[in-house]
Amino acid sequence: MKKLIFHIILMLTSVILTAQEKDSLKTTSLNEVIVIGKKTELHQKQAKPLTSIDDYLQQSNKITMIKRGGYAWEPVINNMATERTLVTIEGMRIFGACTDKMDPITSYVEISNLSEANVTSGQQGTCHGATIGGAIDLKRNRSNFSETGWNGALHSGYETNGNYKIIGTAINYSKTKFYLDTDFMYRDADNYKAGNNEEVAFSQFRKFNISGTSGFQWDKNKLVEASIIYDKATDVGYPALPMDVSLAEALITSLKVEYKPVSKHFKNWETKLYYNAITHKMDDTKRPFVPIHMDMPGWSDTFGGYSKIIGTYKKHHFQANLNSFYNRSKAEMTMYPSDPNENLMFMYTWPDVRTFYTGLFLEDRYEFNCHTALHVNASIGNHNNEVASEFGLQSIQIFYPNVAKSTNRILKSTAASLAYTKNNFDYVFGLGYGERAPSVSEGYGFYLFNSFDRYDYIGNPHLKNEKSFEMNASFGYKNKKFSSKIAGSYFHISDYIVGKVNPDALPMTIGASGIKEYTALSYAEIFNLDVTAEYQLLNSLKWKNQLVYSLGNDNNKENLPFISPFRYTSTLAYKYNSFTAEFSVQGNAQQNQFAPKYGEDNTPGYAILNCNAGYIFRLEKTKLNARMGMENILDTKYSTFADWNNIPRRGRNVFLNVTFSL
Amino acid sequence: MKTLRIVSLALLAIFASCSSDNDETVTINELDGLTKIQEITNDTHVIELYSASGVLQQGHNAISLRIKNKTTNEYEKNATVSWAPLMHMMSMQHACPYSAVTKTSGKETLYNGYIVFQMAQNDTEYWSLKINYSINGTAYSVDETISVPASAKRRVTSFTGTDGTKYVLALIEPTSPKVAVNDIKMGVFKMENMMNFPIVNNYTVKIDPRMPSMGNHGSPNNVNLTQSTDLLYNGKLSLTMTGYWKINLQLLNSVNEVLKGEEITDTTTASSIYFEVEF
């Protein structure tokens, strides 16, 4: 706690001391848009170039990660998890096939292949669909018709903790009319060790990811692009869950036509069709104590498309996106009784739910003058759910006898923000309203065991749309040596969907405490405040700080689950020519405001120290980027508020990442 | 022109063959969904016994029958039928709960009813079925041994209630259970004497379906059985997955006193009376 106060004081003094200085400096945000020429790869700028995408994303003030194991963490935006957020890969809607959220969309893009992660908060993120908390759009590297010919890279990494091996390649070919980008990455880790050398059983994982994108420009301003991602993880341990994963497989494909009119008002018009298929198989065969063996496979297939147009008119910068998807989500559970003569126990946990969404998104940014701009967006969409399986529909009717086979919802959203910039200061104030439909689990899940609060969850097809009213404001200052930003957001969410205990119903899962049925609180409130401050101490030395504070409670002033306690990161970064080094402290305060109703407990605070150093060797066109570091130097044993069932996080780890590029 | 003639001839042939099939279609419709169990003969008639499965078994059996006149080979349409099943035990003989036999509605030659065999045959003990019928005022009778093997799953239970009366409970529906809210139907009978097992009125049968193979979990939104106008007992049975379900029972009299059966708790994992369903 003392450490924490010390940090706050330091932070505040630095804000005050440097606030007088003038001059402008561009704030480095998480979004790094790289457009032309040979790729300045995003991953090469990271402290750990071959880290997981999860690790990368949680550098954002808006994002935390719920961890169920060593791999495939669930991103949480503004303290809101998957149901309330929107994660897309280049605008494509993809839905996990796992009823326990073991396969987040973020696990299908490799950091070596990521050019940009566009994190948007609240209703600013509705371009590709409805959201409450915000959106992440992941964009891959592209050669984009640069005259670079062949080039390639070889990635390799090793981490001592968990004997973690990484190997990957990137091979690209680009000419003015054609390009082909490929990326391959293989990761293999044994069980990791928490602080004090304690091994965390079932934390191993093994996966590979192949990505290919190819573009052809047949006319000066017309191009077609095809892309594919194939991601396959086998043998993924989930120490926090009662089951592991024997297979998580994703095939993600798309075909895009882009037209860049030379016309005065329209700048870009792109149309994409996509298809993705996710298969997920849970596995309990390696667990020592299994009360009953079960198979839990799940499938999620999505067809979709969008057509997006960007343009300018006088002082307007506008964008329109017409998008649609059709998703099929099905999950089964088959239990094997100990008596082999008995029939297998079978149920649909997702009853083959078809979701068909069509929406229109409109956005306009109007610049009054060089200081003031107004940003307005609005969307409307039609969301239809249909239970295709008669078996599944009758199952759900056990709980809700009047469930119709098909339900229709209209989802609306709108947001406006006003930005004002003058003399190194910038101010933004925004308001927003948005709605979302219940997820497949919330609407139609059937006996989904939540190992966190140990209840079986039953979906509720009669749920109303969740509605969010939000306010956000930020205040920033930057000059040559110093930049700082304070941003706050407040969400008032009506008909907030949660599970509520049904005391009359009996649980199905052995060891479960009871049944929770999804229902809605009249409202919940979530408040986030984050502060970033960067100070250029010397020409080669920069000090970066992040502080985040969040609050979340329901209409009875009781805490919501997975609301981050006060968290902070402070980094000293040294850069001299090709040499870089960093030293950082990262920590959380104690989670006092926990939600026991949802299985949370009081997680103690922690702080860990990390350091790394790297050097880029250059010989003509070839480049060798070597980076070495130590994480959790003091081998602290800790777990965070977002660690499922308090599984401890990695102890001391030494890593070496080497990328050789031509 | 030639082709037209051929076509019309062919059409004629088809229609002709259809009409000649007509008689048989009636007979086939009569037996829709029924399979023959056995035939019982006397000098004048052949009695054909039918059920959905084509076999009899311990528990409730819905049985249909037809009476064929040996001389005319025609099925009797206006018979008055009754039956009397009898168990031949080593030490004694007794009957079982059974319904009256009535003409099946919508059918011409079929008669139907049910019999609840509360016990199965064994090496030394067997069931016989006596059928009495009269046609145009003339009475006839047949009597034959029938085969009633034990059922794979428990579908009938007999016990003495706390009131000292012997009861027989039989599961009638669901015959093909689903993962859904199923209609559940039972017959509740008391043993008045060795030969009479009348239906009892205004009782309640409480149900608690459980899966013993999976931590003895239950299911929600079941509805206890109460008597309907057909005098049988009806309720709702929720089955949340396929597999083996034990339907634990409690029998309550008209003033809601428990006559038999226990409530399921952490320590009492099964009731002393239950049925079994597996699918």
Which features characterize this protein?
heterodimer; A: 662 residues; mainly beta; Maltoporin, Chain A; 22-stranded antiparallel β-barrel; four-stranded mixed beta sheet; 5% helix; globular; disordered N terminus; B: 279 residues; Immunoglobulin-like; 2 domains; nine-stranded antiparallel beta sheet; five-stranded antiparallel beta sheet
In short:
Chain A has helices at residues 2-18, 53-57, 390-396, 440-444, and strands spanning 63-66, 74-77, 85-89, 92-93, 114-121, 134-140, 149-159, 164-174, 178-189, 193-194, 198-199, 205-219, 222-234, 244-259, 266-283, 293-313, 316-336, 345-367, 372-387, 406-422, 425-436, 448-450, 455-458, 466-478, 482-502, 514-538, 541-554, 567-576, 579-588, 606-619, 622-631, 653-661. With 662 residues, chain A is mainly β.
Descriptive notes:
Chain A: InterPro entries: Beta-barrel_TonB_sf, Plug_dom_sf. Chain A: One of its GO terms (cellular component) is cell outer membrane. Chain A: It is found in: Cell outer membrane. Chain A: Residues 1-19 form the signal peptide. The complex is a heterodimer of chains A (662) and B (279). Chain A is mainly beta and 662 residues long. Chain A has a single domain (2-661), classed as Beta Barrel (Maltoporin, Chain A). Helix content of chain A is 5%, strand content 56%. Chain A has helices at residues 2-18, 53-57, 390-396, 440-444, and strands at residues 63-66, 74-77, 85-89, 92-93, 114-121, 134-140, 149-159, 164-174, 178-189, 193-194, 198-199, 205-219, 222-234, 244-259, 266-283, 293-313, 316-336, 345-367, 372-387, 406-422, 425-436, 448-450, 455-458, 466-478, 482-502, 514-538, 541-554, 567-576, 579-588, 606-619, 622-631, 653-661. In chain A, β12 and β13 form a beta hairpin. Chain A is globular and about 70 Å long. The two termini of chain A are 49 Å apart. Chain B is mostly beta strands. Chain B has 2 domains: 35-146, Immunoglobulin-like, CATH 2.60.40; 156-278, Immunoglobulin-like, CATH 2.60.40. Chain B is 10% helix and 44% strand. Chain B contains 1 helix and 18 strands. Chain B has one helix at 2-30; strands at 35-41, 45-51, 59-69, 79-88, 93-94, 102-103, 111-117, 126-135, 138-146, 156-160, 166-173, 181-190, 204-210, 223-227, 233-238, 244-252, 258-260, 274-278. In chain B, strands 10, 11, 12, 13, 14, 15, 16, 17 and 18 form a 9-stranded antiparallel β-sheet that branches. In chain B, β14 (223-227) and β15 (233-238) form a beta hairpin. Chain B is globular. Residues 11-25 of chain B have low confidence and may be disordered.
